[in-house]
Every structure is written in C-alpha cells, then in structure tokens.
Amino acid sequence: MHQFTDEAEAAGFKLTPEEGSNFNRIPAEFVLDEDGILRIVYYSRLITDHLPYETIERYAGGTQLP
Question: The whole model's pTM is what?
C-alpha cells in the first residue's frame, strides 16, 4: 500500500492522517446534470487517477459522450 500513498504524495497530494480515516479508499468522481441525474461516473484505479479534464470540458460544451 505504501507504493500508492508514496505515488500520491509525489504527485502533490498531501496525505494528512485523520482520526477514523484511512488511505485504502480509491476516489470516485461524478458529473450531474442540471436535474441532478448522474451523467458521468468515474471510479479511479489509483489515488492519483482522476476524471480527465477534457471529458468534463466536452460534457460542459454539449459534446455527446459515449
């Protein structure tokens, strides 16, 4: 597990331990439309993996997503 937390810290993500939390969680990101409907769901494989900004830009610009 240290490999992933070391990678996250090297990428600039400050890992601050908090009571009751752990670093074994993987991030997920969600894009909702104006009606609150999920339009994009992105489950990361690593703590440093995030929804590509280009995907958000395409959605915001009205481009049809797969």
Answer: 0.57
Measured over the CA atoms of residue 15, residue 11, residue 8 and residue 30, the dihedral's sign is: positive
With a CB cutoff of 8 Å and minimum separation 6, the contacts of 29 are: 40, 41, 42, 44, 50, 51
Report CA 12 to chain centroid distance, whole Å: 14
Q: Which two tokens stand for residue 17?
A: 């331990």
Q: Are 4 and 22 in contact (CB under 8 A)?
A: no
CA pair distance 60, 57, nearest whole angstrom:
5
Tell me the pLDDT of the chain (66 aa) as tens digits: 567 677 777 888 777 777 877 666 678 999 998 899 999 999 987 777 889 999 989 888 887 665
